Amino acid sequence: MANTLNIKKFALSSLYLMLVFGILTILLGYISGSYRGFYLSLTLGLIILITSVVYIPLIHRRRDDDIKGVAIPALQALWVTTSMALGYMVTAYAPYFNIPITISTILFVLGFIMLIYGTYTMLKISKVSRVPLAV
Amino acid sequence: MSQGRDIYGDYATLPIPESELRSTLNIFMVYMGVLAVIAAIFAGSGLAQMYDLKTAISVSIIGNMLLAIFGGLIAYIGGATKANTYMLLRYPLGRIGAIIGSLIVSALPLIIWFAVETWLFAITVNVIYPGHPLTSIVASSIWGGLLMMTTAYIGYKALSILSYITVPFWYTLIMIGLAAAIDLNGGFDILWRIRPQTIAPLGIGITYVFGLYAAGCVITSDVSRYGIKKWSGSIAWGVHVVLFMTFLLFAGAAMTLLTGAPNVIVAIAQIGLGVGALLLAILGQWTTNDNNLWSAALAWVNITGKLTKRVWVLITGVIGTAIAALWGGLWGMSLDPFIMFGILLGNFIPPVGAVLIADYYIVSKHLIKREYKFIPGSKVSLVNIPGVVSIFIGGFAGWVATTYGYRLPTGIGVADSIILSFILYLILTTIMYKLKIKFEIGEWIISEVGI
Fold first, then answer.
1. pLDDT in tens, B54-99
2. What span, in angstroms and rounded, lies between the C-alpha atoms of B278 and B33?
């Protein structure tokens, strides 16, 4: 039971973290001073934001002992956010977006953290819950 | 009764057991991965030569809704029976007929398309990063082919993991690349105003869109059989085709109207996203081509009953890669002969789907009242005569309509072949059944290993 509760907490805290990263991305785009950079950040950040906002309540509603019921939506949401992290890493430094180098670097690092942390979280949830990674 | 032993891998000859079923989202992601290919965007270019953007979008939506119905009906059969395409064909075509059907639908054409896609992948890599030994067409074909073989070799689990990684990133980056290309070439205002000198009739565009993916509809069951609900595959197929194929066709049409060429990948490279463009090319082609290879291997297992799915992935993958690297790359020869053969076979693929739909939903349910069963001990015929006759006549009609423009009844190959084979199968089976003429010849008992 304690183990189950940990999964739910772990999944929720991971998704809240992704939500914060999403909001941070939009803010960074806003202060970049480039409309192209802002639209880019808005696209990437909003996808993460919407995914988190849809899935967090879904996981909250699941019973604490419903391991599978928690793991499935958690993995689905984390796949989207982790895949988007690749987007951060390949777009951050593109000259077209005119993003100042400091903000580009922060976006790149954010993407890198999301990629590594997202992968780690998914592997852990999948292992503990025994739900396939590609759920 | 035993559910059978999976000696070939990936349940190539058996229904998927409950423990292996996946969510609707998983099925959706795999379909999206198959669609995530540059060729889908290039297809939008054809629409741009016929229509303005607004009409191109309308035509795409209608054509894709028809694809959603055709593919959705077939995907449901896979979801309900948990069997792949080549197993399903044993009922409308018989065991021997199913071998012919599998050769037409997957075993031969998918090796050809694997080779062509690998070759196109190599060309794209070479355009983005020219001059490096690893990006020459020969080298890119070889390492690209090997990459695509790895996930197909591991199986469905790997196909879906790769799709989960690729799909959100791929579609978002295509959207960003398209927006950048529009921004750099005059913006949406100009885009909505551009139109070709003459606008083609809507019917031509709708059937053009339908023809793009009609063959793909026929093998939807290979994936939909993994769906946790009977309708998982149908929903996933419908949503992906109506929303996202429409988006890709729109992207190709918009790029062509603005710049004269549909190459989004090159546009993405031009805005300074070299790595992004390369990743798009690699991941997009990979998620499509590994499915080609995987389905081809499943088909070969069902045809021969020999060797495992993994061995067939290696055999077909090496053949496809060799065609791309040697024929297309090293010798610089055109792949047109292969493409022509693939297109010729393509005439006969939609009729297979039409006959399957007619048999499952009408003939089996309402005429002869039987269920599709694939557990060991189940019986199927050796040859279902109306089924085999219908796919050949339907396919031939499609070829005649495409080549000579005869109206049989529409004059558009894909539509004619589907309509004709569907109606013909229903008429032949009904007449033979009512006259008590045996239309299914011989008997084949499914063994412990599903063959």
1. 999 999 999 999 999 999 999 999 999 999 999 999 999 999 999 9
2. 16
Predicted TM-score (pTM) of this structure: 0.93
Identify all chain A residues contacting B167, using CB atoms and an 8 Å cutoff.
83
When CB atoms are compared, the residue of B165, B179, B273 closest to A83 is: B165
**Hey, is the C-beta of A96 within 8 angstroms of any chain B C-beta?**
yes
Q: CA nearest A82 in B: which residue?
A: B165
In this complex, the residue of B23, B26, B273 whose CB is nearest that of residue A91 is B273
Q: Distance from A82 to chain B by nearest Cα, in Å?
A: 8
Domain boundaries, chain A: 2-129
Domain B18-445 matching CATH 3.40.50.2000: the answer reads: no
Best to test chain A binding among B176, B183, B228 (most A CBs inside 10 Å): B176
Percent helix, strand, coil in chain B, to 5, is: 75, 0, 25
Q: Are B273 and A72 a contacting pair at CB < 8 A?
A: no
Give the integer Cα–Cα distance in Å for B103 and B416. 22
Of B449, B444, B448, which Cα lies nearest the Cα of B91? B444
ipTM: 0.89
CB B22 within 8 A of CB A131: no
**Distance from the Cα of residue A4 to its chain's centroid:** 22
Q: Please name which of B66, B1, B127 lies closest in space to residue B419, comparing C-alpha atoms.
A: B66
